Structures are given as structure tokens and as C-alpha cells.
């Protein structure tokens, strides 16, 4: 299965992608997570991306396309993938389309998670993430374990992303509306779009998602 998760920041793409990808035994490819990892490792790509990410802006298309291209060439991607956070504008959508054609693949579905903006701000401002494995929590809706440790192995440090500060949140929502919003109509026009209500509880969204994909619970 090859899937794209589309939706505003904070709607729950990463949360749903982690469990669905595990169920389907396909890699969860989050361009945001790959960029944060590059930044942690201080690679040239990470350092180049930093100023855009801190400001809540999109990292240049060519940089992100190369990351996706490299990730697709890893062995586990032969089984399929779940792309989370890419594409994020029309140019990225056409670059992805070209890449898929070049690799002689097909995209099965684009899932759009819908949610009102006030709820997104609430989710983003309470988000906490493990710096090591990327596991995502919410201070109210999905609290981190009392031990302070996530379920991943290795060192665990639960932190608040700097772009989850209020100013950057508002900027990201604005960038989403302008740059990414048009992809909804783009994929609807191609008859590839499936809409899921992202405003319900985590388990309910997970259930709707499996329902629209025809997966048994
Ligand atoms: P995205 O990847 O779309 O930016 P995340 O999956 O990181 O979103 O979720 C944003 C925040 O909202 C996280 O703190 C997560 O724990 C929380 N969250 C995700 N889905 C829901 C939901 N359905 N209801 C309440 N909180 C949620
Ligand atoms: P969110 O949880 O808000 O959806 P992500 O983790 O997907 O955020 O992305 C964090 C940041 O990484 C974005 O604000 C942007 O700077 C950068 N980024 C991630 N994916 C892309 C992309 N496809 N194109 C450009 N920039 C990206």
C-alpha cells in the first residue's frame, strides 16, 4: 500500500501514521521527522533547513524531494510507504507524481484529515515528543508516561518542539492554508482523495481510517 496523509499541522497525521504503518508493515515516512533528525545530527541538510523550520516556513522543495527520493530507495520502502507531511504544495505534488512514475509505482490513496483551527492550536500547543524515537504525546489528550520515558528503546527525552510555540504555530497554520490547502482540491480532482474527520478522539479517528481503507479492526 502507498499512501499520502494530508492535513493541517496538529491534526494527528503523525499519531495515526505511526500505528497504521505498523499495522500494515510499511515504513512511516515523515519529512518533518527526517528533517529534525538531520538537524539533531547537524548534517548540512539539517543546518540548511533549520531557519525555515524555526520560522514555521516550508523548507525548499528541492531539499525535501531529495530526502524523499533517498528514503524511497531504502530496502523497506519496497513494501510500500505511508508518506506524512509530503507533498505540502502543488510543486511538491507534481514532483512526487513524477518520482512515482519514474519508479513505476502507483499511489493508492490520499487521506485528508479535517479539523477546525481552534482544536489544532490546542493540540499543537500541548504536543510533546520524544527526541530519540519521535513518539508523540499530548499533555491533556495523550499524556506521556509518569516514568517520563516513552515506549521506544534507548535514551528518551520528552520535549516541546520549538515550532510548537504560539507564534510559530500561527505561522504554520497560515503557511498550511496558503501552500498546502490547495492540494485538497488537487487530489479531489484526481479522484484520489479520501476525507476522514480528524476532530474526534484518537481511537475514533483510527477506527474511521481503517474503515475507509477497508481494513478489518
Ligand atoms: P500532525 O502530525 O498532524 O502534526 P500529531 O500526530 O503530532 O499531528 O498530533 C498533534 C498533537 O495532538 C499531539 O500532541 C497528539 O498527541 C495530539 N493528537 C493527535 N490526534 C489527536 C486526537 N484525535 N485528539 C486529540 N489529540 C490528538
Ligand atoms: P507538523 O507536525 O506541523 O505537520 P512536520 O513535522 O510535518 O510538522 O514539519 C515540521 C517542519 O518541517 C515544517 O514546518 C517545515 O518547516 C518542514 N517540512 C516538513 N515537511 C516538509 C515539506 N514537505 N516541505 C517543506 N518543508 C517541510
Please tell me the total number of domains: 1
Mean pLDDT, as a whole number? 95
Q: What's the count of strands? A: 8
Radius of gyration: 16 Å
Strand content: 5-15%
Bound molecules: adenosine-5'-diphosphate
CATH topology: Rossmann fold
Number of helices: 9
Question: What letter string, H or E per element, gives the SSE order?
Answer: EHEHHHEHEHEEEHHEH
CATH architecture: 3-Layer(aba) Sandwich
**What is the terminal separation in angstroms?**
17 Å
Order of strands across the biggest sheet?
Answer: 2-3-1-4-8
State the shape. globular
Helix-strand category? alpha/beta
Text of the CATH class: Alpha Beta
Percent in helix: 40-55%
Folded structure, characterized:
- The chain has one domain: Rossmann fold (3-Layer(aba) Sandwich), CATH 3.40.50.
- Helix content is 47%, strand content 15%.
- The protein is built from nine helices and eight strands.
- The strands form two sheets. It has a five-stranded parallel β-sheet, with helices on both faces. A three-stranded antiparallel β-sheet has the order 6-5-7.
- The longest helix has 15 residues, at 166-180.
- The two termini are 17 Å apart.
- The model has no long low-confidence stretch (mean pLDDT 95).
- Bound molecules: adenosine-5'-diphosphate (ADP) (2 copies).
- One adenosine-5'-diphosphate (ADP) is lined by residues 9, 31-32, 35, 52-53, 56-59, 64, 85-86, 88, 92, 163, 172.
Amino acid at each position: 500500500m502507498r499512501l499520502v496523509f494530508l492535513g493541517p499541522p496538529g491534526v494527528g497525521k503523525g499519531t495515526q501514521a505511526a500505528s497504521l504503518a505498523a499495522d500494515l508493515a510499511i515504513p512511516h515516512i515523515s519529512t518533518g521527522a527526517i528533517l529534525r533528525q538531520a538537524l539533531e545530527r547537524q548534517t548540512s541538510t539539517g543546518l540548511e533547513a533549520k531557519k525555515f523550520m524555526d520560522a514555521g516556513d516550508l523548507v525548499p522543495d528541492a531539499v525535501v524531494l531529495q530526502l524523499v527520493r533517498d528514503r524511497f530507495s531504502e530496502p523497506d520502502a519496497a513494501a510500500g510507504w505511508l508518506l506524512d507531511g509530503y507533498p505540502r504544495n502543488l510543486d511538491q505534488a507534481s514532483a512526487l507524481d513524477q518520482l512515482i512514475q519514474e519508479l513505476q509505482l502507483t499511489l493508492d490513496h490520499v487521506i485528508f484529515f479535517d479539523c477546525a483551527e481552534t482544536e489544532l492550536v490546542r493540540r499543537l500547543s500541548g504536543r510533546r515528543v520524544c527526541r530519540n524515537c519521535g513518539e508523540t504525546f499530548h499533555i491533556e489528550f495523550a499524556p506521556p508516561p509518569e516514568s517520563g520515558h516513552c515506549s521506544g528503546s534507548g535514551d528518551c527525552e520528552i520535549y516541546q518542539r520549538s515550532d510548537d510555540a504560539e507564534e510559530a504555530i500561527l505561522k504554520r497554520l497560515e503557511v498550511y492554508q496558503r501552500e498546502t490547502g490547495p492540494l485538497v482540491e488537487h487530489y479531489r480532482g484526481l479522484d484520489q482523495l479520501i476525507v476522514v474527520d480528524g476532530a474526534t478522539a484518537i481511537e475514533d479517528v483510527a477506527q474511521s481510517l481503517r474503515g475507509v481503507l477497508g481494513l478489518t479492526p
